[in-house]
Structure prediction request, 244 residues.
Amino acid sequence: MSGLIAFWNILKKDIRNYYLKPPNISWGIIFPLSWTLMQIIRSPGDLDIMELLPGLMGMSVLFGTTSMLAVTITFERKGRSFERLLLAPIGLNTLVLAKISGAVMFGIFNAFVPLVLASFLTDLSGINWTLVILGVFLVAVSSTLLGLMVAVSVQEVFEAQTLSNFFRFPMLFLCGLFVPIERLPAILKPLSFCLPLTYGTDILRASILGSSLMNRYLSIFMMFVFIGILFYLSRRNINRKWIL
Prediction:
């Protein structure tokens, strides 16, 4: 019970102090909207909104979660508040889950902004909503853990953002967000399958378009594998850099 109370209070504090700030909420809306408008302007008359949706949703989640974790963790580390949490009588797993839960919720919110906008432009009745929700959740968790792994490895916000971009921007082109993996050069295709967002995007494509590169169950399984690996690496970095 004490662990659950601690989890809730840490999550509530993060939501109040970081995620409910007007700039963050507006950023979650403006970022996917600007990318949608860019695609519409770039391809007038030839644009298939449904083809764009998986990429827009995956990108919104990726940038939203990693950016927020880079800010919250590094700010709290500089202010010594994270160290005070480490001294609290709660398990490290509970602490990590509480810190990432807010970012996961923020990422899920970001993912559904393009869907809401698309509902005014096209018919969404053919979407598999159960698979969409599962895919968005898995992408949000894996992207959040990627952001956490980066954030606990650096000292400053600008360092976290710079290191995050080292992963994020290649993912835009390697994970099938806008360029199908089958069109990539042969030398880059193996790298695509080493990135969690590749499998998350494939789940979203299966749920929205009804077609995917891989079996959806394989993609779901691989997402859980990446989530487990990223969680382990994040915990190891916290232990190695902040505790020992």
